[in-house]
């Protein structure tokens, strides 16, 4: 095979108009020295006068002219992978090491051009695989052409021959050209472009926002002052909104009255809606009730049971008024409380103790002057389980509901909505609130009350302006059994609080009854542990009451049919009374330190006087009108010799005590009867001194000393 001849050197003159020279001319405006050097080598021995005259390379007149030696001089340039434009000494903050650290490696890559290709290299495996598939397709086409060219008898026509020649030429042409290898993973999208609306520019001229520079030194007290100012602004805004709402409601009410007047109402209706007429109608109603219930009013004022003169240790209860309301017939009386200022006014709470029958609730305000209808009615969404009047503000009433919330109402306000109400956001209970009680104002003179619930929390609620804040005082933690081993994470179980009562003389001391039958002695100052624990009953404790006079004596009742009298310094009860039925409530009399009453689920009321009989009640009387009616709560009036008893059918019965149940002890000859709390304390102390065992005090004192040393050692 003859070898290829070496390429001949290009002549200088004929190559002037050639394409390479034109390419150099098109790039000569860059003024590159290397381009000029290459052009000089390609042009060969071109006359210098020709270059000078015609300015072949398009050089500028003021361009520097170099000699051949300077042009042929080599300049060495070293290319490195380091990017001179990359930033150095970059410092970043490390959250792991909590310090600023220098980044050691900086990205030196500079991308000048990038193009995604859809071709496959023919030497790769995928390219070889596609070449094989294309060659097989060509062979299949050739076989089809040959088979179609042959006739059924193996003869071919002229037209068939011409078609076969054309197809063969096409096949050879297609096989001669190399087919472009495509990437199998390459895909293309087809889309249609919709009409785009032309954009329009709109400009407006506005005044420039005023700016001002402010500088100040920030400190803790300045931040605190700023927060206090903001809080005051928020409170003022809330008060303004409330005032607006009140004004709006009054305007709406006036509009309603005006609209009714416009429709044409008779004078009697107009008169009944005025305040003066309503007051007059209320006086007339009470006069009618006084005439209707005149016999009962006479008994309330003057009746005395004559049979008490012939029996030394017996008494009776005279039923007076029966308070009924049609809307609460299917609800149970859940609590009773007398007003602190008005002796004839009392509140009754209605709800349901059955978990499956929870719907609505209500509490009403009754007066002894009008037993036929309540003075005020306050419907609620949930059952009202407890309530209490404030001892100094007779218009404030706090309530506890079955859904775990508490509320404060102003009964003098025409609006039936609560002034304060707890929600899930501000720490409401998760179980029913069984009892609430007002306490003395705190150091900031804010009103506060306490509540106990089945969720094991005793909470202090404070009324601060328009908000109701809470503080957990005690959590009723259950004691772990002795045989239980400490494995894994111990679960803290809370007891279910059912009732509580605060000491009259020592307001920081209170006792809590639980569903487990225990009574916990607690203090407001210690919220992590109990001061003492009494194993009081075998079933749930329904009520605990401090004596009105003696600061160390309290009574408890339970579903285990018993009523017990306790001394706070003794673990064992001083008196135990079995009443034969679950005891719903127990309460001390306000006029004597030895008299207390209890009600049971079989509809009976028991009245005891420890000074007369320590073993049996002075009075045991059935007060319900229907069988299977359970008494739930009782309460004494602070001034009149009557008590109220509520049942599970929504009825409240008022009962008057006979003289034997409220008589004073007879004085011996030559002695004067001493009145006052000190005499009552001495009377009860004399009775308890006969019952107490001195060994129990010694054992308890030693046990308390041991507990104190153990706690101090642990600390």
Structural features, described:
By secondary structure, this protein is α+β, with helices and mostly antiparallel strands. Among the domains are: 14-58, no CATH class; 293-323 and 584-666, no CATH class. It has twelve helices and 30 strands. The strands form eight sheets. A four-stranded antiparallel β-sheet has the order 3-30-29-28, covered by helices on one side. Strands 4-5-6-7 form a four-stranded antiparallel β-sheet, with no helix packed on it. It has a four-stranded antiparallel β-sheet with strand order 8-9-10-11, with no helix packed on it. β17 (509-514) and β18 form a beta hairpin. α5 packs antiparallel against α6. The longest helix has 44 residues, at 220-263. The chain starts with 18 loop residues before the first helix and ends with a helix. InterPro entries: Dynein_IC (IPR050687), WD40/YVTN_repeat-like_dom_sf (IPR015943), WD40_repeat_dom_sf (IPR036322), WD40_rpt (IPR001680). GO terms for molecular function: dynein heavy chain binding; dynein light chain binding. One of its GO terms (biological process) is regionalization.
